Amino acid sequence: MAPLFNESWHLRAACRGPETHLFFAPSRFERRDERARRERRAKEVCARCSVRDECLMQAMSTSEPFGIWGGQTESERRRVHLAAAEAAKLTPVPFSV
Fold this sequence. Notes:
Layout (H helix, E strand, L loop, with lengths): L31 H16 L4 H10 L12 H17 L7
């Protein structure tokens, strides 16, 4: 049986290795400035990643609630989802007679 999720892009991700901790909030309290610095550093890694689009698509298609994926934070992805849902409500449905 084929796997439900093709993980091959993970193997080429720039975030693999010692910088993985940048992509998820620590289990301890994180000050706002610490979070901003961590997220900025993670996004710098994403900016040079050859599989950034695949990563973001995976996070968006599964509504990934945690971490930085494809260069976007949880709140950035949430805004995209909300904007798309709002646009879908406003887009007129084609009418045929």
